[in-house]
């Protein structure tokens, strides 16, 4: 997967790719922004050239591990190198202009293009006491209850469970005390019932469903 530009949508695309288990190459001309992605845990590596990026990506693909490499370079120049060398990502995100558009013409799907809105409603849970010390193992317990409440017969359930498992790694400190996943009404009901059975846990956690 290739992401051209680390604006908020680009960052979200990198996170989505990593959660899904992809090997992601993110390109941005601003080296300082690339370094920030490394500090925030969004990217695993920051490099200066395509050869170094490909070496890392190939190693992690060989190990079947998700990885995100941020390359500080001109977007068009990087995309042109990819075209000239025959490198073809399965997915693209970001600015689809110039050489990046050629990658799309060659068969790369564009993330978010012509996709239906996900089913269900967004369900969030967090600690009731804002600003208090956050024992993350407690949230992990709630994550497991949420994952168990998801209907295994639904095609999107494996990816939703993968999101619950991997997303905390990428969401950063500001969102460390809040988790979310999309649920259908019957799943939300099972989740809330399971949480209510643990009185001590339920006393610490607030659950909110958005339309």
Automatic annotation (TrEMBL):
Gene3D superfamilies: Urocanase like domains. Pfam families: Urocanase. This is Urocanase Rossmann-like domain-containing protein. InterPro entries: Urocanase_central_sf (IPR038364), Urocanase_Rossmann-like (IPR035085), Urocanase_sf (IPR036190). Residues 11-93 form the Urocanase Rossmann-like domain. SUPFAM superfamilies: Urocanase (SSF111326). The keyword Nucleotide-binding does not apply. The chain crosses the membrane at residues 12-29. Keywords: Membrane, Transmembrane, Transmembrane helix.
